[in-house]
Amino acid sequence: MPDILYYDGQCPLCNREMAKLGQLCDADLQLTDIHSLNDGEDLPDRETLLRTLHLKTANGELLTGIDANVMAWQHTRLGPFWRWLRWPLIRPLADSIYRLWAERRYRRLYLN
Q: Of 62, 74, 106, 112, which sits with the fewest C-beta atoms within 10 Å of its C-beta?
């Protein structure tokens, strides 16, 4: 079973990143547009999924935000270049910046 990355297919930036990730990733990563999901799947509600990136690992763990992004990129040869975002001194700042960006993106796309 592959890791599954849930992304917002109505977000232009998200689509660009997923296109690049899709070109580079191995078969152990599945990219899934949130808007194509059926109700009843064992996932958070659609609004929660749209507010931040989610990745469900093959063993069922749910990662969010930068953790999800970094894990997704581990399925490519560029994975090591993303790991610095999880270094202890960088992690809090990276997480804060991501949360601000994700909230702004969500407001711009869905609350205007």
A: 112
Q: List, in sequence order, the alpha helices (H) in the chain.
A: 12-24, 46-51, 65-73, 91-110
Which CATH number do you get for residue 24? 3.40.30
Rounded CA-CA distance 51/112 in Å is 15
Q: Burial level of 92, CB count in 10 A (0-12/13-18/19+)? A: exposed
Q: State whether residue 47 is helix, strand or coil.
A: helix
Q: Average the pLDDT over 2-26 and give the result.
A: 97
pLDDT at 45: 93
Is the pLDDT at 96 greater than 80? The verdict is: yes
Residue (of 112, 90, 3) closest to 53 by Cα position? 3
Report the alpha-carbon distance of residue 44 to residue 63 in Å, rounded: 12
Count up the domains in the chain and report the number.
1
Q: What is the mean pLDDT of residues 36-50?
A: 89
Three-state secondary structure call for residue 97:
helix
Q: Which residues span the domain enclosing 106? A: 3-110
